[in-house]
């Protein structure tokens, strides 16, 4: 990931001249809660100087920027980009300042250049080779998703222990046997692994990925993996997300019922 100092100028990008006198947009005063959030983020900064909370929001900004670019939008005000990302504009401007990106007063941000800056900060200016372990329904769906390549990720291999799956074409690769995991990681210089196997096999797969040198893991198995220092794990549990949605749906249903039943109950 590039440092903020490296991203502070547009002059190092071919065909993108520096803008003399670039100045930050007029900033609104952050609330005490926002200031506390920023202070908390500062205390958990990554080695690059970008807080973890900011890193977590950068992909959201990038998704919004891609959508704007697809609509042919050339420049965007911080308020519009913040609304598209679901954050307030003061927080967005603070986050982007870590990349050395300041909007031009009265103009806003250049969408294409901001896409470059955010992509560079996230390390997406290269195609990262990814191995998916597990060629079940989820693994195949991930391998067939075409959006990864346009976002900086290339599915280099899909592995499974089921001989009925080995040799089948999934996405743009042929499913290999999981016994070749270490050789695949080495030959493709893979740094990112995706675990899409049942919970009972997930830790063993994780251990093999780590042993092979994989330092970043996306885990779809419904359990918490144990990894050594220096290995990053992101967990995606769809059932938990659905349960949270069920909670909110139940609460809204109860509120609607209360509104309807309330007057009747009062008359009784």
Mean pLDDT across all amino acids: 80
Query: Which spans have pLDDT < 50 for at least 5 consecutive residues?
Result: 1-47
CATH class of the largest domain: Alpha Beta
What is the beta-strand fraction? 5-15%
Class based on secondary structure composition and strand pairing? alpha/beta
> Shape, please?
globular
Gap between N and C termini: 66 Å
| Radius of gyration over all CA atoms, rounded | 23 Å
Counting H and I runs of at least 4 residues, what is the number of helices? 10
CATH superfamily placement of the largest domain: NAD(P)-binding Rossmann-like Domain
Q: Strand arrangement, largest sheet?
A: 7-4-3-8-9-10
SSE order, one letter for each helix or strand: HHEHHEHEHHEEEEHEHEEH
| CATH architectural designation of the largest domain | 3-Layer(aba) Sandwich
How many β-strand stretches? 10
**Tally of separate domains:** 2
Short description:
With 268 residues, the protein is an alpha/beta fold. It is 46% helix and 13% strand.
Describe the SSE topology.
Elements: H1 32-43, H2 52-70, E1 75-76, H3 78-85, H4 89-97, E2 109-110, H5 111-121, E3 128-133, H6 137-144, H7 147-150, E4 153-160, E5 169-170, E6 173-174, E7 176-177, H8 181-188, E8 192-195, H9 199-212, E9 216-219, E10 232-235, H10 238-267
Parallel strand pairs: 3-4, 3-8, 4-7, 8-9, 9-10
Antiparallel strand pairs: 1-2, 5-6
Tell me what the structure shows.
β5 and β6 form a beta hairpin. The strands form 3 sheets. A 6-stranded parallel beta sheet has the order 7-4-3-8-9-10, sandwiched between helices. The chain has 10 helices and 10 strands. α2 (52-70) crosses α3, α2 runs antiparallel to α5 (111-121) and α3 crosses α4. Residues 1-47 have low confidence and may be disordered. The N and C termini lie far apart (66 Å). The chain has 2 domains: 32-121, Arc Repressor Mutant, subunit A (Orthogonal Bundle), CATH 1.10.10.10; 128-236, Rossmann fold (3-Layer(aba) Sandwich). The chain has helices at 32-43, 52-70, 78-85, 89-97, 111-121, 137-144, 147-150, 181-188, 199-212, 238-267, and strands spanning 75-76, 109-110, 128-133, 153-160, 169-170, 173-174, 176-177, 192-195, 216-219, 232-235.
